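Hey, resending since the last one bounced:
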Amino acid sequence: KNLKENNNRDWFTENKPQFQIVQKKTKEFYKTLMERLKLHDSIDAFKFFRIYRDVRFSKDKTPYKIHFSGSFSRATNRLRGGYYLHISPEGSFLAGGFWEPNKEDLLRIRKEFEMDASEIRAIINNKTFKKHFGKLEGESLKTAPRGFNKEHLDMDLIKMKQFIITRQFSDEEV
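The structure tokens again:
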């Protein structure tokens, strides 16, 4: 909250020791979360994102991000996708799925949906799933991808380019 109000280099330099203490604790939390995720999924990598913003091509020239974030990658030799945790006052969330699948994975997913989307439909239409994650989100094409029947019953899924679910958290929950 303080950084949001004082997003400038002078203030950050003066308060960097305090930031480093909070950053260290937050990294430890992310590492603990990775170990917990490993109990349920094959996680092979963890990345904690830097606080510094790339402002070269941005209209917003504030130098620092006002959140902590990290990603957890699934064992990519066998599995794809991953998880992302964003911690920010009044804006924390957990996301999972495929953010930007490579073209081979995207084609494979679309082909599977074309053959039979009943399994994914059962998941995303499940009452408990909807309660915790809402709906499947992500960018979509405006029309059917090349090579697919535009009249296919599951075209809403086939057109998708990303497959993401999110869960928002209040500051109290965080």
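The longest strand covers residues 68-74.

Sorry for the duplicate.
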